[in-house]
Amino acid sequence: MGKTKPDIKRRPKQGRRRKSEAQRKQPLPEMHAVGLQALIRCPRCKGNLQAHAAQGPAGLAGSSPPGYACRACGLEYPTVGGVVDFLPHGGGSRGLGQKLMESERMVEIYEGNWWRASKLFTPFLGISLHDEISLIQRITSPGPADTVLDLACGPGLYARSFAQGSPARNVVGLDLSWPMLRYASRKAGRLGIENIAFLHGDAHQLPLRDASVDVANCCGAMHIFGEIGRVLGELHRVIKPNGRFSTALAWRSSNPLNRLKAYLDEKFWGIHYFREGELKDRLDQAGFEPTVYHAKGVWMIAGATRRP
Fold it and tell me: What does DSSP say about strands 196-200 and 83-85: parallel, antiparallel, or unpaired?
């Protein structure tokens, strides 16, 4: 795949408008109708899911996007705004770092010129966003028909990159933040990307079947997960044997300023900075063969292969 500049243009400012019924019930991408049901399962009881039409006000099946119901426990997972909700009753506790990512304001600036795409960030991370996305693609080397999970997908930067790489590739983006997911779904729709699906779910309890994805990626979120061992265990479960995993996360070095920032961020924001050896040990214990490709500033990028 040739180098292409990722779509990181700043969104024009918009006033707060009440969404129309048509906007709230936007059509689902083709990925939902064709391949998603073969990948997902009930996160509560691990049962199989059955697609069903959403019910209108009169209780009649209408043109609303389909949701899913568990055949075993009967729990229903509706589709809202093009996103399948696997946490219909809310998620677990969130640290300040996670809460920041769930704010509407953060969604507005995340892909703009004042956050990750900003040139001001590059010296602190040691790599630009464009180069990071390219490195992630090289680490994972997704095949043209692979299934890819973008865990904690945020506004969909990496998910869109994977999906646009091949129309035959199925991409699933999962996140805990509704504002991020709503933006990601709308952006994919505007760009005409049909091989991508977005799920509202918990990284600690993925709504995916065992060995269902060829590639998984998680950038900018591993350092805010509450139970990293549990998340890595879930990734090992859903990635196929010899599948690939990539991650970008906060790095703790021996630099005094880095160590001070790591201390303050963990104390006040719940952001954990990983030492290189710590990350490698975690991945190894979870059943992966890890390799670190980048460790500069406050940022580390690593890849891993799932052991059979």
Answer: parallel
CATH of residue 108: 3.40.50.150
Give the pLDDT confidence of 220-263 residue by residue, as tens digits: 999 999 899 999 999 999 999 999 999 999 999 999 999 999 99
Alpha carbons 164 and 158: distance in angstroms, whole number: 10
pLDDT per residue as tens digits for the range 13-27: 444 344 444 444 444
Three-class SS of 68-117? EEECCCCCEECEECCEEECCCCCCCCCCHHHHHHCCHHHHHHHCCCCCCC
Name the residue range of residue 112's domain: 96-306
Taking the C-alpha atoms of residue 50 and residue 74, their distance in angstroms, rounded to an integer, is 10
Rounded-to-integer distance, Cα 189 and Cα 235, Å: 27
- Closest to 274 in 3D by CA, of 208, 216, 221: 221
CB 31 within 8 A of CB 170: yes
Evaluate whether 140 touches 293 at the Cβ level (below 8 Å): no
**What is the CA 262 to chain-centroid distance, rounded?**
24
